[in-house]
Structure formats: C-alpha cells, structure tokens
Design brief:
By secondary structure, this protein is an alpha/beta fold. The chain contains 14 helices and eleven strands. The protein is about 40% helix and about 20% strand.
C-alpha cells in the first residue's frame, strides 16, 4: 500500500520520477522543442544533450571515454567516420523495430550497431546575384583556374565535417594524384580556407557580406535561404554546382554506447529518432533528408537538390586513407609544398 502511495504522490502534484538519458551529439543537432517534450512526456525519460563539436570531435570524445562512457547514445557519426567508430568497438548492436521503414541503401553497417538517421549532400553553392550575366565553373578544371579559385572559400578538412567531405569528393573524382594537383592549383589561385562551415558561409560568402561568391556547403542550403527569408524570396538566391562527381553523400548515424546503464531507455530513444513524426521533423531543423521511405518532406524542399551523380568512396577506403589524405592536403594547402613533392614522399 505504501509503495502505491509513493507512486501516486508525484502524479497528484504533476511531477514524475524521470530516468535521464544522456545523448552525445554534434553541434548541428536540432529537433523541435515540442517533439522532444512529447518523447519525455510519453516515456518518462528526461533527455540530456551533450554537444561534442563537429562529427569528428564528437566521435573522439566517445572513443576517449570508452569503458566509462560520458553518454548513453551518440548521434552524428557520419559515413566518413563510420569505420573508425566500428573499429573502436564503442557501440552496442540494436535491431530497432523501425528498421523495416529505413531505405536499405543507407544501412551501411550490417552489424546494426550504427543505425542511419538522415542524409544530405555536401556541394558547392554559388551566389546568383554575383554570377548574374557571368559564366559559372562547369568542371574541376574550371574551378581550379585563378578566376574562380580566388572566389572560393572552403572548410579545413582537419576541423570541419563538410570540409572533409569536400576533400573526399576531390579524391573520388580526381584520383590519388589528381586531387593534390587540383588543390595545389586552388592554393596558387587564391582559395580561402575557413576553420568551419559557419565561418565560411556567414563570414566569407558574399550572401552575408563576404568576398567569396563560391562556398562549400550543402545542396539544401538554397532551400534554407528561402525558408529563413520569411517570404522575402520565393526562389533561392543561391544555387548548387552539380557536375558529375561534384557532391558527396553524407549519412548520419545513431548508436547506443557500450557500457550504458540505461539500455532500455536508449533503445526507446533510437526507436523514437527513427519514428515517422521525428523523421518528418528533421528536415526543417537540420536541413537533411530523413532515411524513412514514408516520411513526407516540407514544401520548401522542392528547392533542395539530390545529385544524380555524387562522388563515391567506400567507408573502408575512407577509414584506410582519411588521415593520410588530410595530412597531404595540409602539406599542399597549408604549408605550401608542391603536389609532386608530397607524392614523391608518399612513395
């Protein structure tokens, strides 16, 4: 009888004894407040989010705390870091009942320790006003010419997720030697390198007062420009450059961290993240596409392009070569070494 009274007391006073689930995310994670509140109300689980930086930094924090995890769940591992997460053995397998609704092409981890949540495409954006009446670059060779290189701002692949994705795009499209020669030409032509996406887009892109009308961003950015203009634009003021191989598919994953003391709550969170209401909440909050095949997209996503021929690299190839590619990029772009010198040292 006393036990029943102890359960009823918090209900009478509108309180609850909530279990707290800690979720480690990258800095771009966002969902509507009412959607999060609905999960907490329905499950009695309080969500606590820890921001870990970009995708790479977030994964590093999870790996460094292996054995004594700082969170129960991690969200934001992408396909550029997937193999590293799997090799580190930080995730627990979970076959969610929502798996049947997920598009199979995004199930990149057959062990089901990393489950896909959303996807998007890193690509070059351009300022339509700046290029009105002017030719756009139509190829990698065009982009490397000084007249375009001096108009371009990119993100550092060592510190930025889209920066790394763009580096991988050049590797996939131009090959092991070609990508370094391309970046050498960009450096000589005057390309600007920013630490991360926010600085590149909001400080250096001409749309926001910068001097660079070409920026590495996402194919959803034109749709976001329309949405956040609050009626000022009926058509995007920016566009995407999508010649074959000029974009890169990013898939983001969620996983239950090994050693969690809240396994049941973690499973509920994963199920919820892949549920239709949450998947339909993702596009206007994180500007990516949901992985559920039955999730409806907001109207403004008609301005978000899905490239027909994105660049492709396997997670295994990325895992094997990622650090070397970044190191070679730094040698050529940051330290000013020649592509030939770097390639000679490789051999």
């Amino acid at each position: 009888m006393l036990k029943k009274l102890l359960i009823l007391v918090p209900l009478v006073f509108g309180l609850s004894f909530a279990e707290t689930l800690t979720v480690l995310t990258h800095s771009s994670f966002a969902l509507s407040k009412d959607v999060i509140a609905s999960f907490e109300q329905q499950t009695g689980i309080k969500l606590r989010f820890i921001e870990g930086g970009d995708a790479g930094e977030t994964l590093n924090k999870a790996i460094l705390s292996k054995g004594a995890p700082i969170a129960d769940v991690i969200y934001g591992i992408d396909n550029t870091f997937l193999s590293r997460a799997l090799e580190a053995g930080i995730l627990e397998r979970y076959s969610t009942p929502q798996i049947g609704a997920v598009q199979s092409r995004f199930l990149l981890d057959p062990t089901l320790t990393a489950l896909p949540v959303d996807y998007g495409y890193v690509a070059l954006n351009y300022d339509k006003d700046y290029f009105k009446g002017k030719p756009l670059p139509q190829s990698w060779d065009d982009l490397a010419k000084p007249e375009y290189a001096r108009l371009l701002v990119v993100e550092n692949p060592a510190t930025s997720s889209p920066g790394l994705a763009f580096l991988l795009t050049t590797v996939a499209s131009l090959g092991e030697d070609g990508y370094l020669k391309f970046w050498e030409r960009l450096r000589e032509g005057g390309v600007k390198v920013a630490p991360g996406w926010s600085e590149a887009y909001f400080a250096h892109f001409t749309r926001y007062g910068g001097d660079r009308p070409l920026v590495v961003s996402y194919t959803t950015s034109p749709a976001a420009e329309v949405y956040f203009s609050e009626g000022k634009y009926s058509e995007p003021p920016t566009g995407n450059l999508l010649w074959p191989g000029a974009s890169f598919l990013q898939v983001e994953f969620v996983g239950i961290l090994k050693g969690t003391k809240h396994r049941a709550a973690a499973e509920k969170f994963v199920d919820w993240l892949l549920s239709k209401p949450v998947q339909e909440d993702i596009p206007l909050n994180m500007w990516v596409w949901p992985v559920r095949r039955d999730a409806k997209l907001p109207e403004v996503f008609r301005f978000a392009e899905r490239p027909l021929q994105p660049a492709e690299l396997s997670p295994e190839a990325i895992a094997k070569n990622r650090e070397r590619w970044i190191s070679e990029w730094e040698a050529v772009v940051v330290r000013g070494q020649s592509a030939e010198e770097v390639m000679k040292n490789r051999r």
